[in-house]
Amino acid sequence: MDKFVYSFNEGSKDMRSLLGGKGANLAEMTKIGLPVPFGFTVTTEACTKYYEEGGQIADSIKDEIYEKLAELENVTGKKFGDLENPLLVSVRSGAVFSMPGMMDTILNLGLNDNTVESLAKLTENDRFAYDSYRRFIQMFGDVVMEIPKTEFDKIFDGVKEKAGAKYDVELTTDNLKEIIVGYKALVKKFMGRDFPQEPAEQLMEAVKAVFRSWNNDRAILYRKLNHIPDSLGTAVNVQSMVFGNMGDTSGTGVAFTRSPVNGENRIFGEFLVNAQGEDVVAGIRTPKPIAEMEESFPEVYKDFTRIADVLEKHYHDMQDMEFTVERNKLYMLQTRSGKRTAAAAVKIAVDMVEEGLIDRETAVMRVDPEQIDQLLHPNFDEAAEKAAQCITKGLPASPGAACGRIYFTAAEAEKAVADGNKAVLVRQETSPEDLAGMVAAEGIMTARGGMTSHAAVVARGMGKCCVAGCSEVIVDEENKVMKVGDLTFGEGDYISLNGTTGSVYAGMIKTVDPEFSGDFGTIMSWADGIRTMKVRTNADNPRDAAQAVAFGAEGIGLCRTEHMFFEEERIPAIRRMIVADNEEERRAALADLLPYQKGDFKGIYEVMEDRPVTIRLLDPPLHEFLPKTEEEIKQLSDISGVSVEKIKKTVTELHEFNPMLGHRGCRLAVTYPEIAEMQTRAIMEAAIEVKAEKGFDIVPEIMIPLVGMKDELKYVKETVVSTAEACKKEKNSDIKYMVGTMVEIPRAALTADEIAEEAEFFSFGTNDLTQMTFGFSRDDTGKLIKEYMDKGILKDDIFQSIDQTGVGKLVKMAADLGRSTRPNIKLGICGEHGGDPRSIDFCQRVGLNYVSCSPFRVPVARIAAAHAAISAKEAK
Amino acid sequence: MDKFVYSFNEGSKDMRSLLGGKGANLAEMTKIGLPVPFGFTVTTEACTKYYEEGGQIADSIKDEIYEKLAELENVTGKKFGDLENPLLVSVRSGAVFSMPGMMDTILNLGLNDNTVESLAKLTENDRFAYDSYRRFIQMFGDVVMEIPKTEFDKIFDGVKEKAGAKYDVELTTDNLKEIIVGYKALVKKFMGRDFPQEPAEQLMEAVKAVFRSWNNDRAILYRKLNHIPDSLGTAVNVQSMVFGNMGDTSGTGVAFTRSPVNGENRIFGEFLVNAQGEDVVAGIRTPKPIAEMEESFPEVYKDFTRIADVLEKHYHDMQDMEFTVERNKLYMLQTRSGKRTAAAAVKIAVDMVEEGLIDRETAVMRVDPEQIDQLLHPNFDEAAEKAAQCITKGLPASPGAACGRIYFTAAEAEKAVADGNKAVLVRQETSPEDLAGMVAAEGIMTARGGMTSHAAVVARGMGKCCVAGCSEVIVDEENKVMKVGDLTFGEGDYISLNGTTGSVYAGMIKTVDPEFSGDFGTIMSWADGIRTMKVRTNADNPRDAAQAVAFGAEGIGLCRTEHMFFEEERIPAIRRMIVADNEEERRAALADLLPYQKGDFKGIYEVMEDRPVTIRLLDPPLHEFLPKTEEEIKQLSDISGVSVEKIKKTVTELHEFNPMLGHRGCRLAVTYPEIAEMQTRAIMEAAIEVKAEKGFDIVPEIMIPLVGMKDELKYVKETVVSTAEACKKEKNSDIKYMVGTMVEIPRAALTADEIAEEAEFFSFGTNDLTQMTFGFSRDDTGKLIKEYMDKGILKDDIFQSIDQTGVGKLVKMAADLGRSTRPNIKLGICGEHGGDPRSIDFCQRVGLNYVSCSPFRVPVARIAAAHAAISAKEAK
Q: How far apart are CA B664 and CA B561, in angstroms?
């Protein structure tokens, strides 16, 4: 027969899915002989059964509960409703995955009009007893009977006012008794029956209420946000109460076995004498550091440190513990793995390996890749940030902290920085022309655009703090003001951005610089030893490439060539090329660009040395490069000799309704093969020269973007190969090179077997692939995605973490089809997802050879790839 | 041992793939005892072998050729190089699929310095003999020796000039002999050897040259354009020459067994006395109607009509025949199925069934669905069109012919038509606001946009002539002029459009109206009896719906609701809704729209009676409805009470970089459920009322557009269902309705199993699906697609015929996944492809239940669906 209720001495930590996290750990502590108030756990399966049976607890389960209750009475020597020694219990939910504060708890169950008096006598504290009863009725009324809290508040506040009490603690026992009378009348009025006096009835109702709480709105939303299946259900823990508020020999506390802040190996926590957990939370009294417990309770403290040590060694991890001291006796109420900062995570993991507690794989698994990011950027001083005035929240587009004066154009930001100011660039949305201003600024804030908008992508690439999509902010670039609600900020006003949380503050906030401890290097090297996927970076210039190499990048997965064209001295040539009347003029303009491009690539090869470099041919639609203002058009006319009228005509002709789906990517190279020729020449000549000069083993990987058809790739590849071969011949070089393609158009994924006939490698451009697979333009749907997540339609931002069901299906299909044609095809990812741990895990499962991400994500990706490799090994 | 050469008496019409079309039919005619000059065919396999062996004819094949040559000499009693009775042959290519004029032919092979004299003697015509020899050397020199034609022309023109001859016919025998001397010297100079005098050598070289011609540029391009595999190869037909130019008892002609123009059952063709085929082509003499042959050659004519009858009965199809009469003896040189107009195709098919020659399925297969279109629209008078001045060519966006005065705005076109003019609306590109002008105009011409641009789609829907994407034309709407090269046209100038070919003409061209004969109805009803897929229409109003029903539509597959909003009296309400500050104001504006929408749907239900109607909820981004000019904004401000500033802000906020991938489709209904509510209410109330009033069995199919995720559909469906149920309750109705979705986002196809949990039907929106799967915006890539087709990267316009490899893979995947969840799910297609025969064939293979297309494509789709059903049956 199925068993639905377990006494604490029947379970263990391995029964988490049945007993929930809390229940399993209470059982484990009981098992290893630690002092845990006895109790029992009603399983998650009982919860599932409760829902299956339409909200009823089956009689057989009820019988089991009563049986365990009898055992509890036996063990504690207390009895439900007993006047001498009444049993009081707490009833707490305990899900498989921690859902803090999401579900309901009832304390002091077992109190009634009679046992409250017994409790008063036993504790020699009338006020405590009646306050407990008052709280119990209120909690029970709220949680079990679903009577609005405000109704209880009205009664409570009425008595308080009548008594002239300002604080709750000023209420006398008589006041509390009056409140209890009022509460009971309220229950009677609402429920049409008296408040249940029978503890067994109280218990059964409470268990049901905890089951019901699994499906309250908060809990459902929390599960949605945290990817917890709805089907799991919650367990219910029924535990005999202990009291930390029975005078100066009692107390309560919360402690970690090591510092969750910096990982230091000593007990860290807080303690309050003569108090219950609630008092700590209420914030009325200030708890003391745990170390001071040694003075108040030397014996108990000794006991506690011993138990902490036992628990850590037992669980092989830093523990977060709750305990209560009742009349000099220590009781453990909870233990679980403690949350920690990135710095602490790294130090604890490394220390524990050195202490022989865990192995390296476990150590690496203990470091959350997302957290690593914290270690790479300056952050706000915590207290200073708390004290600052948060004016709005946007998307946490690129982590770190930034303070500076507001400037509304890139040029002004640049100038201000040149004048010695710190600048924050505030824009409606950035464009490639803002690049210099973004480099100069401490941080970037935009009113529009999502997590993969231009501002966000470029900022992450530079490791620069960015808050994007602040939709409440109105940026008036013309008049140089931004408005948020009633607040107005002008040029030169200070703001501060937290790119890790998305918060924007008025004024300046103190920042602290990151420290790379030796432990960081240790854990990263362990991760490198474990992972099977390579980690490359997306970098367009030697500076970013060098940064990425310093962070451990093993190559460049995506070198975009378009940003190079926006530099001041080059943009005229590219514009001349675009407005050229014929191929000859176009070639002349391209010839002017060639030395620049070649120089770019030489710089990158020199930094990357022997590491592979994937260079993507020109991708954006040409109109992105065209002049916008009359003045710029006039300038272009002067240098190109093309009439203003004709330039305007070109601008009109090149306008596109949906540039994302327009004349870009390899389509440019089909129409203007001479562009691909010039770029190939720059790539090859640079490689041949650097190879000759420095002796590096350079094998350029030439990547053709936006391919959707095999014949399209073939067409452009012919240009690339014939140019590359010509370069080799001219320079008498036998250099090797590869030609591959982005897989970013759904059709490319669907026909990857055909495309692999021409492509030597695939690089998944999951940004565009996501845009087209979903039909979501990332520039236009930032707000919509937020709405979808709020409404539970989307669980994640699809531009942050790859949609494994839809987009992932295409990626997997393409990987499989690609390998079916070319078994050794090199597969990588260079979309923003390449730096996202869950996406990296997906890449491992699909069998990609490498991930590529922005320089500041490289350490994150190294850890995440190690996690993915371990998970894959375990899944086998 | 393999056999590579077949005498004409060894083959048959069923050996087409081996002998080519021409060879198989020559053999067939020989087999059934018709007078065919004897000869043999070198097979397509020999051609393949020739390429496999690097451009060599294997010795064994050479031996076979010589063997068959000996047989030919035997049969004809003539001999290669014989001075008494020399054998002369023609060498012609003959591929499996007809490739007219694509490959090379050599006549009079066997002539040399000696046999030319014999020929002169035999024909008693020196001039004829030397002219034949001259032509042979020239043809052989060009085709076999690849000597530039211009070199021969120089010699020929030199002699002509010297002789003072204006026309070739003025050249004397001596002149021709002089030319021959010159030609032979040219050959010697170019080839370093004499012109081959040995007929056997001539033959082998000629065969090789025909094989080579399979891979000349013209042939390769033709195959690409006509979807003919490169691997097939061509056969070579070697046939003894007969001469139609041996005096007045000889002649040559071309004839059809029935009229290819109107299908009339009598011989139709042309005939020339004392002439060879070449003379007909050269156009020097005007051929006579075939009937007159009866006078010149009564016996031969009788023979010929008998043979024509035999051939038609033998092939069960109208035949296109070539023949030559040599000295009163009739020789058949070719027979094949004749090309015909749509009208002829229909009449011949119906007549032949009545004559018992073919069955109904064959009859339906004989009608090319694409041709049917010709029967539904007015067309230009053929001669008048030939005489007109073609100024440019655009895309044949919507068939038919239109003449009228140019107007550059919809309002001006409307006004001009109201004033009694015929108008052609000329626009850069149309938008929904141009609708009234498009309705008023005879035809529409646009400078931008592809086959599925707004102009094209709407025009096809209305059956209105449209030429889109005239990229050479500069339309200056502001100054009311359009320029093409040096030509300028102003408002009021006449132009004519041929929407079937894309040609645009200056001035007016006479048009002829279509005639629907009884045969048309007959063949359509046979098609309906055969097909298994239903044919629905895309119609947004009662007028189009009625037109479609008249054309045989069995339901509406797509009723777009957005066009309804653009009407003058409604647009203010929709604008008020968009600029509304809150849900309440939005609801008030929607309440004003409800009666209009309800009226729209009632009108449609009344026309459609019991037929199913699928209505799609609002799809386009809201900014499409917003005012553009200052004046319009002011007006909106006045009626809505919203400030001009605020309206402008809304316009800016709603601007999208890529509206195609923006806030549209079901995403609108997620953000503003009240829109979906209003539309559902209009759909349901209209259905309930019309059902009550007229007694039709109406089951509205409510379609939710642009779904990419199951949860998105679920979210919107909840709004739809709760509203529909409320309407039923209010009206006390038990009406049934269905809720389904468009499958037009790649992700919807990829996750169709999940989506089918919520959707009762799928309608494939292959326009958007193609856009997103390819990453091609149809508004921006018209020119690019043309370039891709020119460069052979794309074989078809992907917006005309579904891309079966990529997009089709998604459609098939979605159909299979959808049925895996919901076996009876109703599947249809409502993209433009729903009217394309090849796409319809694809739909049949994927197992769709219906196709839906614009009203004027309905007859096309009915025939195409019948073809698809027959093909599917045959494939089994």
A: 13
Cβ(B753)–Cβ(B820) below 8 Å = yes
Q: What is the crossing angle of helices B644-654 and B571-579, to 10°? A: 80
At B272 the three-state DSSP class reads strand
For residue A742, what are its two tokens?
């982005």
DSSP letters spanning A76-117: HT-BTT-SSSB--EEEEEEESS--TTTS-EEEEET--TTHHH
Query: Is the pLDDT confidence value at A668 over 70?
Result: yes
Residue closest to B622 by CA, chosen among A785, A470, A780: A780
Q: What is the Cα–Cα distance from A469 to A445, expressed in whole angstroms?
A: 8
Q: Which of A417-421, B163-167, B394-398, B552-556 has the highest mean pLDDT?
A: B552-556
Helix, strand or coil for residue A289? strand
The residue written with tokens 């087999």 in the block is B31
Spell out the residues 6+ positions from residue B667 whose beta carbon is closer than 8 angstroms to its own: A784, B706, B712
Structure tokens at A251: 């107390």
Pairwise CA distance, residues A557 & A597, whole Å: 18
Our measurement of the distance from residue A535's CA atom to the centroid of its chain's CA atoms, rounded to an integer in Å, reads 20
Query: pLDDT value at position A434?
Result: 85
> Nearest C-alpha of chain A: how many angstroms from B770?
9
pLDDT, tens digit (0-9, with 9 covering 90-100), for A334-377:
999 988 878 889 999 999 999 999 999 999 999 999 888 778 88
- The SS3 assignment for A809 reads helix
- Residue tagged active-site, from B454, B623, B833, B867: B454
Question: Which of helix, strand or coil describes residue A344?
Answer: helix
End-to-end Cα separation, chain B, in angstroms: 33
3-state secondary structure B473-522: EEEECCCCEEEECCEEEECCCEEEEECCCCEEEECCCCEECCCCCHHHHH
What distance separates the 2 farthest-apart alpha carbons in chain B?
105
In this complex, the residue of A715, A779, A810 whose CB is nearest that of residue B658 is: A779
Rounded Cα distance, B726 and B24, in Å: 70
Neighbours of A874 (CB within 10 A): 9
Using a CB-CB cut-off of 8 Å, the residues of chain B touching A775 are: 660-661, 665, 706, 708, 744-747, 768, 772
Shortest distance between the Cα of B780 and any Cα of chain A, in A, equals 6
- B711 touching A, CB under 8 A? yes
CB atoms closer than 10 angstroms to residue B653? 13
Using CB atoms within 10 A of its CB, is residue A93 exposed (0-12), middle (13-18) or buried (19+)? buried
CB neighbour class for A394 (10 Å; exposed up to 12, middle 13-18, buried from 19) = buried
Whether residue A830 lies in the annotated active site: yes
Predicted confidence band of residue B247 (pLDDT cuts 50, 70, 90): confident
Nearest CA-CA partner of A701 in A687, A713, A690, A691: A687
Compute how many other C-beta atoms are within 10 angstroms of the C-beta atom of residue B488.
12
Question: Alpha-carbon distance A620 to A634, whole Å?
Answer: 24
Could you tell me if A103 and A213 are in contact, meaning their C-beta atoms sit under 8 angstroms apart? yes
- Three-state secondary structure string covering B527-549: HHHHCCCEEEEECCCHHHHHHHH
pLDDT range class, residue B168, cuts 50, 70, 90? confident
Query: In what helix (H) or strand (E) does residue B860 lie, and over which residues does it extend?
Result: helix B858-875
What residue has token string 């995720």?
A: B709
CB pairs under 8 A between A and B: 172
CA distance B496 to B392: 11
- The per-residue pLDDT for A513 is 73
Enclosing H/E stretch for A130: helix A126-143
Measured distance CA(A851)–CA(A869) in Å, rounded = 13
